Amino acid sequence: MEDEVKIVNYSVEGATDYGFLVDRTEFVPRYFIEEVLREKIPRDIKRLLPDIELRELIKASLENVKLERVPLSSVHIEPPLKDPRKIICIALNYRDHAEEVGSKIPEEIVFFLKPPTTLIGPFDSIIKPGIAEKIDYEGELAVIIGERAREVDSSEAMLYVFGYMVFNDVTARDLQFRDGLWRGWTMSKCFDTFAPTGPWIVSADEIEDPHNLRIITRVNKDIRQNSNTSNMIFKIPDIISCLSRVMTLEPGDIIATGTPAGIGFTREGGLLKEGDIVEVWIEKIGAIRNQLISTK
Ligand code: MG
């Protein structure tokens, strides 16, 4: 649709910048926005997120003025945020997923962190680490924080959300348990390339209800996860409120909200093999598609 604005991060010959999608095939780079506005648009996406007024002006400009467009196919699409200060992942946030892994349904929010070095773009390759075998996917809706949030109530938490993107919480299952010992989530989920994201950021005002979005994960076109974000145990306002009482949330922070049932580990032959392509699609946002490769 013509009036939709999504932020896309891209690179051309190694130089990264961002722009505004005008449809699903073309975008207006930041430096092609009208000159009066262009000077105000910060180089760092994280600084644009809290500036509601500037975002409105950009949106109006995209609708009213004929600006030069660039085809998406001519650039490399990068992760929407390359250097967030935090990536926070909610564990066991869908009842059917907690059941499939034999876990108790959590009564409180459980979370872990992934470092920003896990991030890759929507069509980049996931690299299989030499020390892991059982590589798995977890399709998830990710929330992007727009404003600094500290000890916020659930009733106000959505005001701190900038937007949404698709997230794959890639996991090496064989490193979660080893020698009968639970190793935690950190090692198994923190390898470089283990967080494919994108394909762009959809601002919150374009998504009427983030708790009513279909989410589908396919491996080589075979549907593995088919759910709806309405099935989350802890909803986004409660997640933000809880996290903000632990740590200050900052613009650009990413919160992955958990995965529904259907992970590869719980089915025969379900884990990813080299060459497999895993696609996560979320209604109203789009799809990310990443191949598992080995560099050995
Ligand atoms: Mg997960």
Structure description:
By secondary structure, the chain is an alpha+beta fold. The protein has two domains: 6-77, no CATH class; 87-293, Alpha-Beta Complex (Fumarylacetoacetate hydrolase, domain 2), CATH 3.90.850. 15% of the residues lie in helices and 33% in strands. The protein contains seven helices and 21 strands. Strands 1, 2, 3, 4, 5, 6, 7, 8, 11, 12, 16 and 19 form a twelve-stranded mixed β-sheet that branches. Strand 17 and strand 18 form a beta hairpin. The longest helix has 13 residues, at 52-64. It is globular and about 60 Å long. The mean pLDDT is 93. It binds magnesium ion (MG). Magnesium ion is lined by residues 89, 138, 140, 169, 256, 258-259.
Which segments are poorly predicted (pLDDT under 50) over 5 or more consecutive residues? none
- In the CATH scheme, the class of the largest domain would be Alpha Beta
Give the structural class: alpha+beta
What is the H/E order? EEEHHHEEEHEEEEEHEEEEHEEEHEEE
Number of helices: 7
How confident overall, as mean pLDDT? 93
How far apart the termini lie comes to 44 Å
Beta-strand segment tally: 21
- CATH homologous superfamily caption of the largest domain: Fumarylacetoacetase-like, C-terminal domain
Structure in a nutshell:
With 296 residues, the protein is of the alpha+beta class. It is 15% helix and 33% strand. Magnesium ion binds next to loops.
